[in-house]
Design brief:
elongated; alpha+beta; two-stranded antiparallel ribbon; 392 residues; four-stranded antiparallel beta sheet
């Protein structure tokens, strides 16, 4: 494990990495706790007591039924099931960084959705389709003589719950969690690989189908109007997409298989030493660091295939190597130089090792120079005693 800025290192084990990730993202985890507390508080607050008159009851006299999908099953569908899928993928890839980001993104998606849903419920106070039977369980209606407002004589908690129709919490929770899972699966199985495997579509749309059925059950049970379910689905999908994109590229992106931390390229001009090292940057994941001089540009290039628990993931490694080459071509203006002392052509700017020794790579006149630098502006210094070259 390697931290930026010359900080102390620790063993690059999944456990130590998980601890470091938790520390680095401690503010995010504190926010998770804050969101949990907010959900609890919003459920205690009484919703807005919206006016309900006699003329409005015609649309609110649907029978009072039990939930087809009980509330306790929603956290299982929205959080537990996606978490299990993410953990299964971790068992295959052994990437603690990706596991952490996926779980963090999932929790943010569900909890932000829950806070927004409960806040809007309390603020709007829309009566449910079965409000009449909540207000008058014996079927005998009573109204204020002056305003015509209903005078409920049912259970206080049942009536209070009857003012929480908009938006549907079951639906928003389901779409936020299962929608996040669909995006995650679409990226991992490469649904947009242009190979015509329709089976991948079935895998990706299965979580969404479950969320849709949950939403339909809310209308069938007369607990919500169709507008409530539509708004809940839209809210859940929006939050799922935003939270997913916070940590991962779009599933249709060529680099969508991995988290952003695997592909970021950082510019840092504060290092005085040239360095070529594989390790793990706590902010940016596994990397190769190609250093420079005081006035040089240090480039931190991600390569997740370098970690011990990632060597078997050829898919991620190939995509990250492809991205590395793209950044190299951009860095040298898509020009390639030939080192005269070598029989083979190499890409200047690519990190190169010589007999397991570090080679100084400097940025000079918008080009990478390898080895000792000539006094002339664009010439490449010669490297002696070359026994073996291999490029990353």
């Amino acid at each position: 494990f390697r931290m930026r800025g010359g900080q102390r290192c620790a063993s690059d084990t999944p456990r130590s990495l998980a601890v470091q990730l938790m520390r680095f993202h401690r503010h995010d985890w504190v926010m998770i706790l804050f969101l949990l507390a907010s959900v609890g508080i919003l459920n205690i607050i009484d919703p807005f007591d919206r006016f309900v008159g006699k003329s409005m009851l015609d649309d609110l006299m649907y029978p009072l039924k039990e939930n087809t999908v009980p509330f306790w099953t929603i956290p299982i569908l929205a959080v537990i099931v996606p978490s299990i899928a993410i953990c299964i993928y971790y068992c295959y890839q052994r990437d603690v960084n990706e596991l952490h980001h996926a779980l963090l993104g999932l929790l943010f998606s569900v909890l932000i959705t829950a806070v927004v849903t409960d806040a809007v419920k309390d603020a709007v106070g829309r009566p449910r389709p079965d409000f009449f039977w909540r207000c008058f369980p014996d079927g005998i209606s009573k109204f204020d003589n002056i305003t015509g407002r209903v005078e409920c004589h049912g259970d206080v908690h049942v009536i209070r719950e009857g003012h929480k129709s908009f938006p549907s919490g079951h639906t928003s929770w389901s779409f936020s969690g299962l929608g996040f899972l669909s995006l995650y699966l679409a990226a991992k199985i490469e649904m947009f690989d242009h190979k015509g495997h329709a089976t991948k579509l079935c895998v990706v749309f299965l979580p969404l189908l479950v969320a849709i059925l949950v939403g339909i059950s809310r209308v069938d049970d007369y607990w919500h109007h169709w507008q409530d379910v539509f708004a809940g689905a839209l809210l859940g999908l929006t939050m799922a997409t935003l939270c997913y994109r916070q940590f991962f590229p779009a599933p249709y992106d060529s680099n969508g298989v991995g988290a952003y931390t695997h592909f970021q390229v950082l510019i840092n001009g504060h290092s005085n030493q040239a360095e070529l090292a594989d390790g793990w940057d706590i902010e940016n994941g596994p990397y190769f660091r190609v250093g420079g001089t005081d006035t040089a540009v240090n480039r931190h290039v991600q390569d997740g295939g370098l970690s011990n628990w990632q060597r078997g993931n050829k898919q991620v490694l190939d995509r990250q190597r492809h991205l590395l080459e793209e950044h190299q071509r951009e860095a040298i203006g898509r020009n390639f130089e030939t080192i005269s002392s070598l029989e083979r052509r190499v890409h200047v700017g690519r990190a190169v090792t010589l007999d397991n020794e570090r080679i100084d790579c400097r940025w000079n006149a918008q080009r990478f120079t390898i080895g000792s630098i000539s006094t002339e502006k664009h010439k490449i210094g010669k490297i002696s005693s070359i026994k073996r070259w291999f490029s990353i």
